[in-house]
Task: structure prediction
Amino acid sequence: MEKDNCNKKSLSEVLDVRQFRHTNSPVFSTAIFAVIMLLVVAGTILSNMSLKSTFFWSSPTSENGEEVIGSSKEHYKQRQDRLASLTSNRIRGFQVDQPFRAVSSDEYFGKREMLAVESVFKAHPQGCLMIVSGSLDSLQGDSILKPLNDRGYKVFAATPDMSLLLENTPAKSWFQEMKSCKRDPGRIPLHQNLSNLARLAFLYKYGGVYLDTDFIVTRSFKGLKNSIGAQTVVEGDSKNWTRLNNAVLIFEKDHPLVYSFIEEFASTFDGNKWGHNGPYLVTRVAQRARETIGDNFTVLPPVAFYPFNWLDIPRLFQTPRGSNDSTLLKTDLVKLNRESYGLHLWNKITRKLKIESPKSTLYDNNLPFKPNVPLPRPYGPMSSSCNINSVVDSEHKEKELDPLLPPRKASKNQRIDWFRRKLPELEILKSTTKSKSFHTRVLDLYNKNCSAQFFMIWLSPANSFGPREMLAIDTLFTTNPGACLAILSNSLDSPNGYTILKPLFDQGFNLIAVTIDIPFLVKNTPAEAWLKRLKSGNMDPGSIPLFMNLSDLTRLAVLYKYGGVYLDTDIIFLNDMTGLRNAIGAQSSDPATKRWTRLNNAVMVFDIYHPLMREFLQEYATTFDGNKWGYNSPYLVSRVIKRLGNKPGYNNLTIFSPDAFYPVNWIKIQKLFKKPATTREAKWVEKTVQDMNKGSYMIHLWNKVTRKIKIEEGSVMHTLVSTHCTVCGNITNSHI
Result:
């Protein structure tokens, strides 16, 4: 192939997948029209793959040569960069008639996927299964599937022809635009969205059952027709569903609802929002379809396909710790066997979990795989050794008075005496069994191909984590869809915390609440000696609430040790900030010179081990004063940066103007909550919203000033929250 050939050809070749190898065989014809199971190797295992492993071509000059299109998400954050990446890759020496293409490489088809296939045939001995996969439609794939074929199972792999599949469907034009590089593929790996589209196209053209590859079938689907499963429902009402899922789909050929799914995919495609073209898509369309196409489809309750949500499922892999756990496990098995058609394993959560006991759910299926199959660690709040009953009891007894709040108007000596008495119960200052998993859990989270790693800190009781904090997290993910967030919080890393955060987990957001290990964080930093002095009981903690000063320390330490973005919890995010590096925002500036006069530490973006972060820690440890508000936080970062200036080693820093992070100061912020009373004020609201959306990454709400102010309809805040928040509900007159 000549180097000056059309740049767009590489993407066209990626998407222009060849026809089925078995098209002319009787087996293929029978399978297409009598298929009982349609299993696409891309459904959920693709969440564990990088974009680099998505599309491959074999070179005729090398038996194992591969050309890879695309790259990891962090390299292509902007739309124009992603389009350029698709058009700039060229394939040298490519034989058009013999491509090797895969949605997922055959090496990813392992024991779990074999387990899924095996369970299909246990429940449907006479069934036919087509695995739609370019990588398994090969000699290597034949070898992998041979144990299944040797058992007499009617299973084969076939490479899809996407052009043929999408002919005479609403997605044809979308596909052509993507091939011609006229459409932004988005940050989400393209193979995930192609998988979402392919399952719809197959069901529309041929009918049958689509299954993800991490679904264990437990009983026959016989009798099911034109059905989809609910993932979540309104509590206490199994028929009032709130979220569907596309991991299991059962539909007849040419079904109007599936056509509507494809139409929605083509017309609303967004490659930047996780789930937008998958579970959220089928949910949106089905909600509308109840009024337009009637009752020609069935929504089954969660127990049918998703009896355990992705936060609860890790306990099915664990050995019962006592009689309560054993009773709970038996109840789970009864429910699974009596009411469920299968079990979705939520690969992203359970892929690396080990099955601890031969009595676990998977082993009870009598499938030919060892119980110690390495199947990521649960990212929920409970560890495998957690005594659930005792933890729940302790949460119900959570004190209203924060133990980190010193007595009001106490003298220095009184505060020291108070602190000495409190020290034994202040677990936040200790390395405990639970906190020692901090490092592992944070690394597990950030190993999930995050576009950026974010930190928030919550040192108050879990019950005080309210709508405003939920708003901050929700808008973070709506503007930074590929982000990962660790909330450093002992109180939220609990069953009660899980309940509070559940609406966010249900959105599919990539976050965890994790117990802080402050001794670990400050180890080998200038603040290590300061913590030792504090724990000795001979140091005045100050009149400022201790949790505020510990929060100031923790944000510095976590950024120094891990790098990333630290954020306060009273923020509304307006724009994607994943491209920022080594940045801090000015809170105020001189109107004449435009030079900053004060910085703020509510938003900080720094590389791991940045020398400026170490200077911040040094300043904290040597000049700490717990009696002056802001002294260890905004004033600290301001005086350090002012002192260091542009000295070598410290000038790798961007200081943003107030518009970036603090577009409205704490004096004027209240105006944003008020509805316009005149036409002039209405125009001001409109212009302010436009200016913020265009020129600001976020808006800081200045909690101390606005916590009790209600949002009035038509106000700037009402408009911003309505636009950027997905879980806020009715925000009018609320105290967000």
